[in-house]
């Protein structure tokens, strides 16, 4: 608990420093926001284009697929804000910045996450929320008092699934010299999670549910709110999978750090 | 109490062997070959609290690897380390609060924001009390004369200014041991001297134990009472600097300036009878004589001074550490060399 409070206070400091840095490079900040928005827009347009050619995917309507995409954007934005580990291998392993991290009295993963915190990604989450809201009314779904609470729990679960997987992925850099091409592969698989899983064959469904559980960052938790596709078991497995995968990710990280060998000098 | 206690410390790295050519690269793709490289070979040493110890050796001798194991960055392959009563890699987060680290090639500071902002953040990370932090900062800023730099972003500082800020960053939490890896690399002589003075003062006033690696032997001469010399992962010398000079300094050099032009033959004649004495001519009126350690300098001097030649100036050079160290590197370990000498004598 004390550790948690300490980490939160660190978070505040790092965000403050982030802001001070970004204020010196204001253009950079807006360019990033803009490119994030463009990226989401193209994804959305893709869905619309698909539905111009077919009335339904499986038995999912356009509005339902857009709803799932809206949900998908929320945890993805939060995850991208806090677990921006794309350049981990290069910056911390190849350039040896991990040295500095390890000489400071705070969790190594906490520090790496905080140093790369990327608040503009949160705007994606907001837009996702809006898309979800729009589809919600379009589909004429009922609104229950507990829906916002469930959304928060589901989002947390999805974020933890992401963090666990990408932390484990970043840890690979401790074991191999050369940065691998696994990250883009992972990223592509992750994108399957934002479409209804029922449209895929058995093998891919198994992969997306149990091995690289990206179905838990999109379709499963979102199904809780979609009356026609509701799958309560899978939906409530989201926080469970989140905790399990986060624990696995942390465990792998702790082992990986012991293998760190520094760079040059 | 010992600040650092190292026993039979070893670090092995697995290094990938890259085979040559396209065929080799293809083979590597399927079957990687590894070689084990031992960077640190079962070294042991103890450093008591309050000592300034220099850790020297050529590139790749294992200095940085040792320092990284002592600071908890690397996990040793085998052996025992105890620093400040902690096993560094096992109790890392707790341990690093009691040490300060300055790696000359890496910065502790945030590049784009004012130095003071970095210090504030480090205060949080190290959980330093606000009042303590302020007092400490005022003192450090004053001794290192950083006053007007504090609000400048790191990227606009010169290397010397940055280095002084790095020192402050490493000392804000008042560590009892300070590790410095190449602290004066690339700095001009004025800044070097300032930093040395500062470290001496730190050691004197707070009893901070300092372990520093350096290639600049002037650092060692200015600061260290003790030197640990490393070669190929092994300790080849561990002891006082004076002793090192005495044992391995091979002689002294005296320069004479004569009033009249001299020839090498003339001056050599002056010291005939002294064995091992060697003259070199610097210019028309100046000559240097090298006197081996076995001979008494004053004997040689008096002979030259007592001669007919008129002398306008005399300078005595002590062999500097640089030369001694170079000599030791060239011949391998001093012990091995000593043994060889003994063997020849016996």
UniProtKB/TrEMBL annotation, chain B:
The keyword Transferase does not apply. It comes from the Bacteria. InterPro entries: AAA+_ATPase, ABC_transporter-like_ATP-bd, ABC_transporter_ATP-binding, P-loop_NTPase. GO terms for molecular function: ATP binding; ATP hydrolysis activity. Keywords: ATP-binding, Nucleotide-binding, Transport. Residues 24-257 form the ABC transporter domain. This is ATP-binding cassette domain-containing protein. It comes from Cohnella lubricantis.
